[in-house]
Every structure is written in C-alpha cells, then in structure tokens.
C-alpha cells in the first residue's frame, strides 16, 4: 500500500474524530493502537517532536502525519512532512515529526484537503498502518 493511501486513511481518521462521517472507514479506528507526541502543547511552527506508538502489528509499516480539518471541511494531512516508520517486534515505534502551524493537506479521498491552520483549530498527529489500524493524539501550538 502506498504512502498516499495511508495518508488518505489518516485523513479519514481525522474526519471521523472531528464528528464527520466517511463511509467504510470505521475499521481505521482499531481498539488497541495508541500514539503520543512529546511535546504536544505550546508547539512552535517548524518544531520537531517525538512521536511514539504501540498496539500496532509487529513489523508493520506506518505513516505518521500531522492532520487537521482543512478549509474544504474534510480531514487534511500534511503529506510533505509525514514520516514512515516500521514497528518493532512488539508493535511499537518512535519517530521524529516536523510540524507546521499551517499547511495544505490531502483529504480522505486523496484530493487536496484545503488549508489547515492549527492556530485556529485542533490538529492531531496520526499514525496509520497498511491494515487500516490508526491512532491519533491532539497537538496544539502557542
């Protein structure tokens, strides 16, 4: 599965988390996966954070991205700064992610999701694997 497909799934997860409905994406909200960001508040544009997660399948490839709801009203993920990581034998990972306060992202349909401004709306870090297992954690700037 390509990285753009994983980002579309991540964008769909964000849209669902924001109270929107995208048919067929319920499996993306797998029960056991978790993700955290350090730091996750008081962030500055261009800051690099540490993202850690667990509960994914061992040895799975994940896409980790910053996401929000774009001005098109859909989940929108920052593809330009997304990272790819492989989980360890326990299904855990740690990676670095550079954040942007504003970005033009990709929506759940693979189309431009519109501009996201994390100073005006809640943004998230999302980790999603090739099996549609995903987890999110909120981040905030300021």
TrEMBL record:
Keywords linked to the UniProt accession: Antibiotic, Antimicrobial, Disulfide bond, DNA-binding, Signal
Pfam families assigned: Neocarzinostat
Swiss-Prot/TrEMBL GO biological process terms: defense response to bacterium
Signal peptide positions (record): 1-30
UniProt-recorded Gene Ontology molecular function terms: DNA binding
Keyword flag Disulfide bond: yes
Family of the protein in this entry: Belongs to the neocarzinostatin family.
Protein name in UniProt: Neocarzinostatin family protein
């Amino acid at each position: 599965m390509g990285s753009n497909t994983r980002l579309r799934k991540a964008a769909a997860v964000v849209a669902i988390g924001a109270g929107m409905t995208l048919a067929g994406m319920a499996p993306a909200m797998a029960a056991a996966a978790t993700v955290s960001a350090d730091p996750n508040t008081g962030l500055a544009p261009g800051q690099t954070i540490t993202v850690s997660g667990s509960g994914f399948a061992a040895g799975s490839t994940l896409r980790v991205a910053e996401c929000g709801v774009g001005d098109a009203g859909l989940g929108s993920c920052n593809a330009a700064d997304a990272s790819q990581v492989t989980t360890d034998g326990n299904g855990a990972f740690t990676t670095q992610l550079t954040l942007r306060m504003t970005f033009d992202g990709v929506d759940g349909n693979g189309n431009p999701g519109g501009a996201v401004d994390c100073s005006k709306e809640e943004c998230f870090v999302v980790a999603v694997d090739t099996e549609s297992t995903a987890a999110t954690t909120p981040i905030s700037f300021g």
